[in-house]
Amino acid sequence: MSTLRVDRVSVTLLERTVVRDVSLSVPAGSWVTLVGPNGAGKSTLLRAIAGTVEHSGRVEIDGTAPAGLRSRGRARLVAVVPQEPTRPDGMTVLDYVLLGRTPYVPYLGTESAEDLAVAGELLDTLELRDIATRAVTSLSGGEFQRAVLARALAQQAPVLLLDEPTSSLDLGHAQQVLELVDRLRADRGLTVVSALHDLTTAGQFADHLMLLVDGEVAAQGPAAEVLTEKLISTHYGARVRVLTDQDGGVVVVPLRTRGCAPADATPLPLDVRRG
Ligand SMILES: Nc1ncnc2c1ncn2[C@@H]1O[C@H](COP(=O)(O)OP(=O)(O)OP(=O)(O)O)[C@@H](O)[C@H]1O
């Protein structure tokens, strides 16, 4: 169980500040999701948290700054599912998932029975067992995305960073993957920070949302406070209707612009109330 603290973090790339003065506290076992338009700085902030991009300010996981650690130590502390992971040539799915065990394998040593057991369990959980011997270069986008998550979970790090982890997944697999992460959060106290474009999904799975715009925090709080028609219109230039489902969850419905105001839009299903 680990608490993540981000204190006044800024990142400048090619002389442009793309993340400015962001602070965030993520209690152990909770899930924070970054939302915001393209180029807002979500991926860069995740990279700063992971300690893989130079930044000012401080990132700490239980008092330790990932940026100050060597790669093995960092990988034991924080696991990352990047937005565009590379596919190593000629590597099987099993070997790819086992890469996640690298921080536990001794120098010049081989994987232990425990490493193989962890990887095997993840192959089953993420429905990769039948394709374990296939080359990762041959997988569909969704199959590979599940392999990337399996590799990250194999690290058994207390903090998991997810950058658009479901962008290639069909609806069913997307829900299964996010439910799995949520289970790990609830059962093992995994601390999760994700970046998601799907605002409904973002609201359903996170305890706290942070809306980034031009590298700065434009709003943050529970989904109902961040996912408002006004904020989405202002910052995304999108016309949406925000609804509340039966469980109190926020549902963001994009509206096609046909020259009518949101109030004139087609009536919605009876089981969905206006938020
Ligand atoms: N290596 C880099 N060098 C220079 N600029 C960069 C670099 N990486 C990202 N940027 C710029 O930083 C800004 C933030 O990019 P970032 O990828 O963090 O945004 P994002 O919110 O994740 O966007 P998206 O939703 O499109 O994935 C963008 O303007 C991007 O062009």
Automatic annotation (TrEMBL):
Signal peptide: none annotated. It comes from the Bacteria. SMART domains: AAA (SM00382). Pfam families: ABC_tran. InterPro entries: AAA+_ATPase, ABC_transporter-like_ATP-bd, ABC_transporter-like_CS, P-loop_NTPase. Residues 4-239 form the ABC transporter domain. Keywords: ATP-binding, Nucleotide-binding, Transport. GO terms for molecular function: ATP binding; ATP hydrolysis activity. This is ABC transporter ATP-binding protein. It comes from Jiangella asiatica.
